[in-house]
Every structure is written in structure tokens, then in C-alpha cells.
Amino acid sequence: MQNNLSIYNSLTRTIEPFNPLHPPFVGLYVCGPTVYSDAHLGHARPAVTFDILYRYLLHLGYRVRYVRNITDVGHLENDADEGEDKIEKKARLEHLEPMEVVQKYLNTFLKNMEQLNALPPSIEPRASGHIIEQIELVKKILEKGFAYEVNGSVYFDIVKYSQKFHYGKLSGRVLEDLQENTRIIGGKDEKRNPFDFALWKKATPEHIMRWPSPWGEGFPGWHLECSAMSTKYLGEVFDIHGGGIDLQFPHHECEIAQSAAALGNESVRYWMHNNMITINGQKMARSLGNFITLGQLFSGNHPLLHQAYSPMTIRFFLLQAHYRSTVDFSNEALIAAEKGLKKLLKASVTLKNLKPSKESSIDIVSLKARCYEAMNDDLNTPLLLSHLFEAVKLINSAADGSSGMTADEIKETGDLFNTFVFDILGLTDESENKSDEKLTSELMKIIMDLRLEARNKKEWAVSDHIRAELKKAGIMLNDTKDGVTWERD
Amino acid sequence: MQNNLSIYNSLTRTIEPFNPLHPPFVGLYVCGPTVYSDAHLGHARPAVTFDILYRYLLHLGYRVRYVRNITDVGHLENDADEGEDKIEKKARLEHLEPMEVVQKYLNTFLKNMEQLNALPPSIEPRASGHIIEQIELVKKILEKGFAYEVNGSVYFDIVKYSQKFHYGKLSGRVLEDLQENTRIIGGKDEKRNPFDFALWKKATPEHIMRWPSPWGEGFPGWHLECSAMSTKYLGEVFDIHGGGIDLQFPHHECEIAQSAAALGNESVRYWMHNNMITINGQKMARSLGNFITLGQLFSGNHPLLHQAYSPMTIRFFLLQAHYRSTVDFSNEALIAAEKGLKKLLKASVTLKNLKPSKESSIDIVSLKARCYEAMNDDLNTPLLLSHLFEAVKLINSAADGSSGMTADEIKETGDLFNTFVFDILGLTDESENKSDEKLTSELMKIIMDLRLEARNKKEWAVSDHIRAELKKAGIMLNDTKDGVTWERD
Predict the structure, then answer these.
(1) ipTM
(2) Which among A65, A349, A466 has CB closest to B97?
(3) For the domain that residue A53 is a member of, what is the CATH number?
(4) Domain range for residue B348?
(5) What's the distance, Cα to Cα, between the start and end of chain A in Å?
(6) Alpha helices per DSSP H over A148-300
(7) How far apart are the CA of B243 and the nearest CA of chain A, in angstroms?
(8) Residues A179 and A236 in one domain
(9) How far apart are CA B133 and CA B264, in angstroms?
């Protein structure tokens, strides 16, 4: 299979041609959420970024196995090896079994993903569902001599690993610097070196999520699940691993180390990272009061929001920036995105109603080629959108009569919209789906007023005709002594 | 907490008062689907039955932990101990990884449950996610002497178990009869007795879903997961276990045996079973050509269906029968259900628009009491519905002026509908949610025709007024030389 797709590989820090290991198959693994609270803005960006990648690979004809994990155990507070498990802490606060917490927030996350029109992954494996696989991986790393057991916990030995492999190759961190930095925090640790990380943690007596292991009862370290599950479902070497850039270190660096230690070689061929979202120029954090969940965003229910923003507005907003750029959220930027999206979708409707002219105004072959070029250039969605807005301009000038489009051009431009706007960018016209109760009642008011006027003028035929037409549309009028009411049949 | 709920306990074959072990908490476990194909009619009945139970328990003020499992490994063809795993077989046929099959059909199942307005369970554990727990349970049963290992598989020893416990107490099967029946099928089995069942099966070399165990690589027997997961999330003794009556034997009988063997006592206090669905008097089976998936039912896309039936029609249809009665699906019965549901929901709208009268016609206190009595009598939903249709009759006669309802009665009847129709029976008015594009276009056609007529009569003020009113409703009219078109703003 041939393609001209190039993607930025975080590992080599260059844009590389994308050549999968076993075409037409592509293995794609993306780090999913830790399901201990409502999905927020930060979850929308990787969801949309890797959905675009997935959609584009499918469009190019690849058979993609897209695995996105659900972290439901082992992710401790502060992303470090100490502190409470994030899910257990929430379970304690909400008086729930940890798996009730997981189910609740998993349901919300999946709902939000559907709202954002992100396609469901092929497999959504859960960390707690792969404890055996993780234990087997720890055993392998121990056998190879890159880990050590202390008091029922197992740690990865970074010094030992660094003698044979390059720890820090993804993130660019240098071992000596890490040594300097972590020495200060370290202290009464049972690790040989403070920057070593846990593969398996001994469970304290009050810890709920625990499993038997060769080292006693415990639970897996956070980084372990992704190495275990990606290789289980995609093979020991696979094509693409994606995630947010905040996961590059330590999470992804540790994944590389785990796989290399256990297998003797790295598993991932292309590492892809989406950049972060800021809010009004600030990092999003609960302590700053600018923490916005997707539910709040869609309903407008947050002090920082001037209005509700629909899932498609958020999606469009994110696509206006390249996935490797930072993006700043503000009401102004979102309102602009809302307008832009509306303009794009409206042009698609205008196009359908366009009367063909003999005059030609659009070089559709070149436009289409440039759309592909933009996507092939590391998924350059802002550039793609600017090409699509060229088409919008031409459609609108054809509509107002200042230029024209031939029947063929109208058809081909329609195909272009279907391919790029709807299939690849995954945008949808939300107004087509949403409930129209309000509009129905407004239209009914207009009709009822017109009918009343006809009756006042004793135009009984008109009044009866309206009643008959409404009946055909499934609406019954009831004349009562207080006036006319209507209801659906 | 006080309640008057009684439920039929399949174990004692009597209707018993429901007294949970640790009020206000209730532990509820229901057997979920084996996700290897689209959810069908047979899945709708337990989904609705136990959703009603869950909703009613919540309504009574209980804090319910509702666990419904997902079987994604170990369920072999013919529900027996031999043959291919149902999911692996489908994976082979569809050229997918088994967990891709699981994800695909799990997504469809959950979508269907949402369409049927069945509330999501508190926890949806998966068999493949609890292999360690299942291995630990097998170890316990082996330790207690009620199982034996042969060639890497472990079987439950029913003869040994029967010396201490009563195998067959739930289903009423008699060991001697089982012995007679299975001897004929048995043969070259490695089991001591042909009716013994597998706790752990050795994986053949081509078997994909496999895990290491003390007995070599293998996978759990089908019955094991429910014992392991129910006690993990609900405790060693818990309140209610539900499922379809087809699961009573061998599945639930084996669950009882596993728990009793491992723990020394049974785990489940109340066993509840919903009865089966037949189609035009026949059992549903792929071989009979009457196998209808929920997707087909909702779209009408099956040769046996005269039309599409909405999820709420199906739900209402099931509620018209007691859950312990069989139910026969036919187009006639479904069309009748569709009408009944419409009548019920219409009355709820009529009620809202009713003008209070001074005259009283309804004994709302008695009606409400009878509604509770019906639910308390083993969830007698058909009786409940007949009470609610009494209210419908009164509402309609108040609406046509032949009787009256006071303001208080209108309010209390509204509360009654909210409680029983919407909260407890979980019915919704689908017309409120569905897309109204069709209606909008029909209403717009009526308005445009009226406007055209006004213009033909040169009533410019009317024509301009209509344009202005539409604009307020968000609809723009475009006069073109070919006529008037409209679009949303």
C-alpha cells in the first residue's frame, strides 16, 4: 500500500514518512484516561488528535487496530510512586467501591467521546483486567536483571538499564540531571536510586485494589499497564504510540525502558504527542479555579464560560491549531470557532442548492491535492481548513451570482466536503440532530396565528385547509372554548 | 428501612418478603451477555426486568450496588465444556483479535441498553478482567476437595459435592436423572462423571485467550466468573442474583455449587429469574429464521417485521406481562403495545393541559396505594399498568368534560405518573427526543404555501409579517427567481 503520509516522530524529533510494519495493517496505541473524575478539556485534545489520525489512516485504506487503555488501578497521586491510588482516594471520598468510581467516570468519558464524534477504539483494555500480563512482564524484567525486589515491591533499576540502553532518549532527560533532582526529594525510600520507578507495589493493609503475586499481595505500577497491554494486543513491535506531551516523561520514557528491558528491543516505531491546552494563558488546574470539565463546557455551566459551546465547536476549535502547537482556550476564541464552523457547514448546504452554471471558477483538482498534502504533512489540519475555506468562498460567490460552478464542480466539491469535512475531520452538523421542540412550537405559533386570522376574516376554507395539512403532518388541532390547542397525533 | 416488597425466590419457590442483609444497602448481581454477536430480543427481557427491580429498589430508598457482568471468555459453544469458545470462533470468522469482537458487540449491547432506557449498572466487570480471582477460587475449591485436576484442566466433582450439599436444589434436577442423561452423551471424557463441569480448561495450542495458572496455560470455565465476581464486589453473602430462566441450569446451579464448595455456605439469598420470549409461538433460534436483533427490531429491518418498533414500544410490551410469564412476540401484539404506550403518554400530556374543576372524580390515595401494592407483589407490572390506565380513563373523561378533576387531583395524578410511568417503569416519550427534521419541513411547507397565497392576493403586510416571524424563529427566507427557499440562520 502506498501513501505519502509523514508524521513527526517524537523519538527522532523529525518528520518521517509513515511506513507501517505489516501493511495494510496498522497498530495504534493511545494512552487513555485515568477514570477517577469527569473528563475535562485536557482529555478532548488527545481524543480529537488521535481520532483524526485514526480516521485518516482508515481513509487511506489501512486496517487499523486502535487500542486505547483505561487506567483503573495503579495511578497514584502526583503521578509518582508514593501516595494514594487516585481511584481509591475518590472511592473513599464518595463512599463507593473503587470499581463503582471507575464505571461512573468511564461512562461519562465514553459519552463525552461520542459527543465529540471520536470513533470508538477497536479495543479498550483496562489495567485491572490485565494484572496477570503485568505480573508476567515484571517477572521477565526481573529475569533479565533490570529490576529488584524490596519488601514485596519491585522496582526498575535505571542505573543498570542505562548501562545497556539509553534512558531518556524520548524525553531528552539526562540521567545525571535526574540524579541531581531526585536526590533532594528522595530520602527514606526503599529504592536503590530515587529515580527508579515501581513495577509492582506491595499493598498496605488498607489498600482495596490488590492481587496475589510472586512478591505478595500488591498492585501494578502505573507505567506497567501500557507496556503489557500494547504488546499483548499489537505485538512486541508495533507502529504508533500516541498520547499527550505531558506523558512523555516519565510515563512513556518508562514504557520504552520496560519493553527494551523485557524484550531486548523497543516496541514502538513512531511516538506521537499532542501538545497542551491553556486557559486564558494559564495552565488548567483545580487550584486556579479554571478547571473545566467537558460536561460544563457543553452546558456553559462554569463561571469562566460566557455561553455553552457545543462538542463540534470544541472539535473545530482544536482542529484550527496543529496538534503539536499549544492551544489557548478563551470565550473569544471559542465564539470565533463557533462562527467558523457555522460558515463551513452552511457552505456545504449552499453547495447542495447551487444551480449549475456553464462558467467554471474552481480548480478542484489542485484544491483536492492541496487538502491531501496538508493531511500528509503531519496532519496539518489548520492548513487543511484554510484550503476548505477557499472552497467556501467560491461556493458563496457562486451562490450570490458573482461567479459560477459547473455541475461537475458542484459534485466534486461536494465529494471534497464529504471526504475532508465529514469523514476525515469528523465534523457533523449538530443542528440536524438536535431536538427541535423549540422550533416546532415557534412554527406552530405562526401557523395558528395565520389560521386565527383566516377565521377572523371568515375564510373558513383556508382555516380548514390548514387543519387538514397539519393533520397530514401528524398534528391535531383541538378547538376548545378557550382557544385552539395542538398536540401530536 | 421498612418496605412491603415481596419477591419470588426461585430457590424456595415462594414469594418472600424482601429483607436485605445490610439495609439500606442492597447487593444485586445479574448475568449479562456473552458479547459475541448483536444483542437480540432475548437480551431485552432480563435488561428490562432487572432494570425495573433496580429502579424500584432505588425508589424505595435503598442504596443498590448493581453488578452486571460481561462474559468475554470461557463461554463455549452449546454452553457445555467442549467446543470452541464463542468469542474466539467469531474472531476467527471476522478475522479479528477476540477482544476486538468483544469491544464491537459490547458497544452495541450498551447502546441498545441505553435505547431501552435501562439504567447503567454500578459495575460491569468482565470475565477476562478477573482471571486471578477465578484462579484463586479454583484453588479454594481444590483445597476443600470438591474438584480434581486432569491433564491441566480442573473439574468440579459433583458426586463428592452431593455428599455434603444439595446439587440440584435450584433447578429441581435430580442427580440420578442427570447421571442417566449424561452417560449417553459422555464417552471419551476426562471427567470422572460426565455431569461434572469445568472450572479451568487447558488451552489447546491454537487457543488465543489463555493465561498462566498453577495447572498450566488455560482459561476459566463459564460458570466460574459469576461466582468470583459476585463475591468480589458484593461480598461472600449478598442479596439478589438475577438472570434468565434458561440460565437456571446448569449455570446458576453450578454457581451455587462453586460458592458452597469454596465458602462452606451459599452466597445468594434471593434468586430471581425472568421467563423467556417466544416469537409467533416458537422458540427464537437462528436455524428457525426468527432470530431478531434489537437493531433489526428498532429499524424494522427483518422479514418477520411489518414495521419498526421503537425501544419504548418493546419496553412497554415487556412490561405488559409479568416477568415470570412467557411472552410471545408478534406484529399484532407489538402494534397493540405501541398504541397502548401512546395512549398512556398522551394522557400525561392531556393532564398537564387540564383545566381544574371543582368536581372530584378520582380517588387518588387509593389508586396510589394500589400501584404500590402491584409493585410490591413481585413486581406485578401488568397490574400496575391496569391501574395507570384507570387514571388515563379519568383524565380523558375530565378532558372531554364528562367528569372533572380538582387542581389537587391534577397535581397528584401528575406525581403518580412521574413516579410510576417515568421513574419506576422507565418509560419515556420518544417523540420528545427524536429529530424533528421531517416535521419542520412539513410545517415550513404549510407556512410557505400560506405566504405564497398572501403574495398572490397582494397581501404584502401578511407576507412580510410571516418573513419577520420566521426570522425570529431562526429561519431565513431567500427569494430567488425560481421561488422561495428557506434555511436556518
Answers:
(1) 0.85
(2) A65
(3) 3.40.50.620
(4) 279-432
(5) 55
(6) 158-164, 175-185, 224-234, 253-263, 294-299
(7) 21
(8) yes
(9) 18
